[in-house]
Sequence to fold (284 residues):
Amino acid sequence: MSENKIDPSLLSELKATTRITDDETAEVRELVLYIDEPFFRFREGQSIGVLVPGKDDLGSSYHKRKYTIVKGNQVSTGDGVELTILVRRCFYIDDFSGEEYPGRASNYLCDAKVGDSIIITGPYRSSFAIPDDKSSNIIMIGTGTGIAPFRAFIGHIYKEKNDWEGQVRLFYGAKTGLDLLYMNDKNNDLVNYYQEETFQAFNALTRRPLSGDEKALEHSLEENIKEAWDLIKNPDTYVFVAGLDNVAPSLDMVMIHASGSKEAWGTLKQKMKDEGRWSTLLYS
Fold:
């Protein structure tokens, strides 16, 4: 794909961009994209790719980054569809120079203005599939932007899979109390689901100022380890893990302690994978 020849079907229009976190914490924005194609089909929880202009390390004219679709709807005119993604403005530290650089895709999207054209790809199939059996238990574990697929996931469970019978648990970690605002979108707050008898969410903050989200997740699990471990041992439980790839070792560390040994945890985790009850959506 050249910079001058873009398939019109890949173009979306930015209809709205709203900051949903406090000015004193990391910037997270809700972006509403309009696709002028009524046959564009997707489900909440799937992802789209965003193509950012500018050559990447491999010489491509675009840098691609995937974002989870948290909600969407057919536009009233019937001519197109709208979908919503969440974007957290990111920066990274160069290992050699120690300098801070803006994340290419996140800053491009956070700086975009209403009316701008955004090139997209997809949608891509979600690695998270809701069990067919409504008596199944569901455990969601994540940090940071890992909450996006879970928001869509939880909404799907309680809105489209009526009368869910199994237990649904969310374990989430954050650096600060303000970061916990990222769990909630202004129109469809997770608190709406707290009234469901089967749903509970456990949040924790990191106890050390310089620690990351993964340490906060460890605290969330450790503080509720009996709740988490009893469900994980249950053969009717499905586990979904999302967020930065450092979530995985933090989760393993807590579960090794709960199970009594690295071998015991490894055996149970592999069994869940073999049975299709363990799914991850991790990124670096």
User: Anything to note?
Assistant: The helical segments are 104-111, 147-159, 213-223, 225-233, 247-259, 262-274. The CA atoms of residues 2 and 59 lie 12 Å apart. Confidence is low (pLDDT under 50) at residues 176-182, 205-211.
